[in-house]
Amino acid sequence: MIAVARSLFGRRARLRWVHLILGGALAMPYVMVGSVIIGPATGSTNVFGSFPLQLASFGVGLPIAAVSSLFPMARPLEAANVRWLCDVDTDRIASGPARTWGERGRTAAWFTLHIGFGGIIAGASLALPPFAAVLIVLPVFAGLRGTRLGLPEVFDHTWALALSPVAGAASLVALAGCAAGCGALLARWAPVLLGPTPEDRLAAAEARAADLAVRNRLARELHDSVGHALSAVTLQASAARRVLDSDPEFVREALAAIEDTTRRTVGELDAVLGVLREGDAPGTAPAPTLAADLDGLLRRTRAGGQRVTAAVEADPEALPPPLSREAYRIVQEGLSNALKHAGDRAVVDVRIAVADGQLEITVENPLSGSASSRPGGGHGLRGIADRVRLLGGTVTAGPTAARTWRLHTRLPMKAPVRKEPT
After folding, report:
1. What's the Rg (C-alpha) of the chain?
2. What pTM value is reported for the model?
3. Structural element, H or E, at residue 324
4. For 43-69, where are the alpha helices, taking DSSP H only?
5. Where are the domains of the chain?
6. Opening angle at CA 390, ends 384 and 396, nearest 5
7. CB atoms < 10 A from the CB of 225, how many?
8. Can you tell me whether residue 363 is helix, strand or coil?
9. What is the DSSP secondary structure assignment for residue 421, as one 8-state letter?
10. In angstroms, rounded to a whole number, what is the distance separating the alpha carbons of residues 235 and 258?
11. Who contacts 190 (Cβ-Cβ below 8 Å, separation ≥6)?
């Protein structure tokens, strides 16, 4: 019983009832236009004084309503009502205007059903409750038994009076049942008539994939840029603190490197966050490349006391900008891993060369702990793997027999950059 009562009078049923009442309200202008046609056609001067003529006006108004709903903006307006009042999942209803005639035709069919069911339920909702209330109180108020209310003569009998409250309550339940049934039918048909087409679903999937690709790229940029800066600044500050009294010149160099690192990172962070701020223009700081900042990257890393040897056997100026940019991030992440895992006394070897049309990048440093794992890592290596995959290259990373950690990538010099994976 509780489930039945909830299905008839629960929140979902009430909202769908309101949706039907709105459909009845939308039907009124079309009924008026229909009455203008039915009146002269039947010679009647009072169309609304006859229930059959009212139904005829309603029937004439429905095709007119279908034609008026062919405008593209009819679909988003109806879709908004369906989402709020019919309890239909948002992703099952299209949000944009109808673009094709097929979409417009389905919208017209939906609008006709909405105002058709709505007109019937709205009319019953206006007429039936007062009549049901009279039936319920009829045995108590004798003055209502006359003919002023137009009640049938059967209510003059005692048995009819005794059953009238039951009939009144039953009529209200029947109205609620009809409203709930019509609302459920409209909710079932809404995804069919107002739902996205396969083209809409494909466009939405492509939009989500593009958004995800942008987010993944921003996450990689933030991790590589900010992560490297924090690792470098931490190492530089630690080294400067240890020799604060004994080597002031080194301390000055370390502080200068910290200043330079943080300034550059703030510029890169502004560029990345500018993409995330809705309505804001992206930051103007250019993405670093091997040609523009490889020497600076090595200098800032060495300023913290880290010993770095670099063999650059390729001309950074000759590299395509996308390749130079991604290669810079790979070298930067390799140095960041070395800063975190190799210790400040270890020597980090960086080699950049061109062989067989491939740009080879190797970053190698001694292992300070277990040769089988590097605690705390993982995100940077995944970012490198993503960058290499987008460039169509290969990457290997792991311990070697000589107890070193070796990161080695091969990137095609002329291969087009692949799209982000969906």
Report:
1. 38
2. 0.52
3. helix 321-341
4. 51-68
5. 2-196, 204-412
6. 40
7. 23
8. strand
9. P
10. 10
11. 82, 86, 88, 92, 93, 110
Q: Classify domain 204-412 by CATH number.
A: 3.30.565.10
> Nearest 5°: phi and psi at 401?
-65, -25
Residue (of 244, 119, 231) closest to 182 by Cα position? 119
Phi and psi, residue 309, nearest 5°: -110, 135
Q: 46 near 24, Cβ under 8 Å?
A: no
Query: What is the Cα–Cα distance from 123 to 51, expressed in whole angstroms?
Result: 12
Distance between CA atoms of residues 398 and 386, nearest Å: 17
CB 244 within 8 A of CB 251: yes
What are the mean pLDDT values of the chain's consecutive 10-residue runs (422 residues total)?
84 92 93 91 86 90 92 88 86 83 91 94 92 81 58 64 84 93 93 81 67 68 70 74 78 79 73 58 63 85 80 90 88 83 78 91 80 49 83 89 90 64 44
From CA 53, how far away is CA 48, in angstroms rounded?
7
What is the SS3 assignment for 233? helix
- Residue keyed to tokens 């590589």: 224
334 neighbors 363 (Cβ within 8 angstroms)? yes
Compute the distance between CA of residue 24 and CA of residue 56 in angstroms, rounded to an integer: 16
- The Cα 193–Cα 355 span in angstroms is 59
Instruction: Name residue, tokens 């395509």.
Output: 320
